[in-house]
Design brief:
alpha/beta, Diaminopimelate Epimerase, Chain A, domain 1, six-stranded mixed sheet, globular
Length: 575
Amino acid sequence: MKNPLKALLLSSLATASLLPCFAPSVYAKEQADIVFINGQIETLNNRQPRANAVAVKNEKFIAVGTDQNIKSYIGPDTKVVNLKQQLAVPGFVDAHTHPMETIWLKEVWVDARYPGTPSVKQALLNIAARIKTTPKDQWVYVAGVSASENKFSEKRLPTKAELDEVAPNNPVIMSNGAHMAIANSAALAKMGIKKGVTKLPHGAGVLAGKDGEPNGVITDGMGDIPGSPTPQEIARYYASDIAKFWNSYGFTSVMAITPAAAMPVMQSVSLSTPTPNIRYTASVWAAPNGAGMPKDLSVFEMPSKANPAYYRFSAIKAWVDGENDCRTGYMYEPYVGVMDTDPPGGKGTLVTDQALANQFSTLANQNKKVSMLHCSGDAAIDIGLNAYESLSKNQSGNTIKRIEHFGMFQLSPEQLKRGQALKKYDFHFSVQPIWLLELVNADYENMGVARAKTGYQFKTLINAGLEPAASTDMTGIYLGNIDPFRAMYATVTRQSDMGIFEPQEAISVRDALRMWTIWPAKAIGEDKEKGSIEVGKYADMTVLSDNLFKISKEKIKDVKASKTVVGGRVVYESN
């Protein structure tokens, strides 16, 4: 005969487990600070791939499991958040970005970004409007997207003469992406650029016309073009503005590529704002070619009182070349056709030669830091691989060795094999999948079909055992690049700006998610603390408006971050 009391008790427990919120448990094994219940949680932890609820204490996960299990962690002071059956995933990690510059460009620079600015004519009108309200001799900076010469209706960039006409009394710099700029005469004069000058102190290249006079084109001028936000502005960016922007797209951590001159401000902010709403892993650059780095990198370390959960100095960066979208990526064979903005020889720009790349990676290794070498063109990729192969034979400890943009524009089978061989030496790389939606057409025009078809081989890379770490590479040039969902959409559908591109390279939704979570965590050396939802890791999660695994792949581009959770704190919530 059934026990009616036992049946009643079981029925009551079953009913309670369905409630959207739990009453405090009198049997709490350990009281959580906060619990998240009633969710569909994709952990990316192979030992426990899915859950419904998590418990958080001291900003870390202390339990991951069913609603019923997590109930036992609720005490009288525990906050309970009902996820309402939404999909929750590990907090997004941006493996390579320039957040300080992004906020500055977003706030201050003249907007000449395609498609909002469709032509050179409109770009010049936008600049002229700013000049009317700008004091004489004050610098004016203009943001143009990568490959503007392919996108503007005139199929070219503004000339120095055109910039002189709209701004005769102001130095003007117009960017063509992050690796090329057009300067007017006033800007060239301010920078001391005159006939015969082809190189600037911090690695920038200066191009000339047939008469030998500078034509206004400057390549990789990040370290030589003057201007930056004020220290007060930078402090505000790191204390609040960066987090607001990145949190709204589900990001909980960023690899913040930071100029050496800005590091004292970040170090100061780490004390004044010990718990920001995003985690910073800093990568420092001094000059594009790696010059100017001290032998002892400890000057960039965070203060001893800074919270290492939110502020870390972990890497240094140098640029081996420019970028293929503006025809400055360093290649073995020339770009298709000839443009006035092409560096001499038509094969792009070599910023850091093999000897300097070797020295740079060795310096990082000796200081136990991540080495980051930007390599876009196929010749540049080989310089990066050569440096890491040489370092692996003579290294002091097995530190992370990274190539930024590995295989984005070009990748040969031999380079893929070399990357595989380096994996045991902690080789990682960042990729920018959203460029599928922006630069494939320019790649075809600049490199031709055969070379362009070798880019963006995400499935090939994954099948080879490599783990591409996705990033926004935000600089403020393409403001829409902040959106990881559009990037995921591109990787699983292979949609590009010229239609479906190499569809056999489409990846699974789960791998697309790994590209924004556990793989970037590995690429910054922090996968023991973030990148998956499991006990002991930081309680970072992104709650999504739609379930990535239940909607059509075409709808992934419309998904939004519903909540962003950092250390158990809900730091962003959509309307």
